[in-house]
Amino acid sequence: MKLTHLRTALAAATFAVAAGASMAQDIKLGYNGDLSASPSAQSGQAAVLGMEAAIADINAAGGVLGRKLTLVTRDDVSAPPKSIQNMSDLVDNEKVTAVFGPTNSGNAMAWKHIANQKKVPVMGNVGSGTDITKPMSPGADNYMFRVSMVDREQVAALMAYVKKNSASKVVGLMAETTGYGQGGLKDMEEIAKLQDIKIAGVERFGVGDTDMTSQLGKMKSAGVDTVVVWAQGTPIAQLIRSMEKINYFPLTLTSWAADNITFYDAAGKTLAEKPLFMRTVGDTRTPTQQKLYDRIGSKLKAPSSFSFALHGYDSVLLMAEAIKQAKSTDGSQIRLALEDLQAPVQGLLKTYTKPFSKNDHEALTAKDLVWIKWKDGKLLPYSDALITSFTAADFKQ
Asked: Which residues pair with 229 in a beta bridge?
């Protein structure tokens, strides 16, 4: 009887050790971003869906270093303190190899010091704030990378459009008063100066404002025929609606936030078609993009958020390739691998050939972006003679 019990105990212990060893073999990845609280949560949800699809595909092909990838998600409910807490939890308790996200740029700025201090690589796939991927100090090792839109890249392209447009004679800038809006305004003012574009007026508005006729009236009085706007989706819609109130419709170029369904719903079909903006993909898709959409489209809160699923998918591919090249889950080695990826990575947005370097942690640049306008409820690519004439040299920044 004692021998039987001993054998049973030994078997149970062996099983527990084996199970623990199996779990230890998994390479944990973390996502930290808004998944429920703000309108941008749909972007975070889409990014996670794309990440999960990439992880499933990689695992089906044998994983990385002979180990499976797993994803641990944390919802920061769009709040910086919660996002900081999540980051510490993912790094210190979950022991993730890398972190993805966040949804909101301000949250990345709140905890990027943790990633750099702990030497944990981060691959942003939603937030677009320009400063996210800048090192903590000049020349310092930098663990923040990104596969997503970048505010400054967008601004460089929008300002190039203004510069080459003979109809844009008097230019004004408008931005919401949040960190996002003011960060974009800083980029707009700097690049306008760099491209020798004279700015006739600058106006600001609150993210919750519903009437911007006062600010627009000043623009109209100054003779502004072109306005460049940096704000989130709903405020941009309220700005366009305010234009209608005073029958003043200058050429309007905006941040990519106009792609959000909240913008379309608040502006309405006709007014939603006024602004021109950029994003990484429109509603016309390549066969490989369509294949992913067919897999996850029914789970998206809005079809317009699909671009973030593509960001999520490609961000995992790049991180997996870096781990493979490093032959390690050590953060320092992964960072070095990301900065010098030897093999091209065939993503869904593009083929990434040495997408990063020591001093450049952005996988997507202005030349990778698509000009977009809403048309009949769809995000359709837009082109004209100016856009087709652009070269990389036009995107001064």
From this structure: 174, 254
User: 152-279+370-394 has which CATH code?
Assistant: 3.40.50.2300
Nearest by Cα to 121 from 365, 361, 290, 378: 361
Tally Cβ neighbours within 10 Å of residue 118: 14
Domain ranges of the chain: 24-149+284-364, 152-279+370-394
| Residue pLDDT, tens place only, 289-322 | 999 999 999 999 888 899 999 999 999 999 999 9
Residue-wise pLDDT tens digits, 339-390? 999 999 999 999 999 999 999 999 999 889 999 999 999 999 999 999 999 9
Cα separations (Å) of 72 from 28, 55, 152, 239, 375?
A: 7, 12, 30, 39, 38
d(CA 119, CA 142): 9
Fold identical between 24-149+284-364 and 152-279+370-394? Answer: yes
Note the pLDDT tens digit of each residue in 69-106. Answer: 999 999 999 999 999 999 999 999 999 999 999 998 88
Each residue's pLDDT tens digit, 109-136: 999 999 999 999 999 999 999 999 999 9
The amino acid sitting at 205 is F
Q: 300: exposed, middle or buried (C-beta count within 10 Å: 0-12, 13-18, 19+)?
A: middle
CATH code of domain 24-149+284-364? 3.40.50.2300
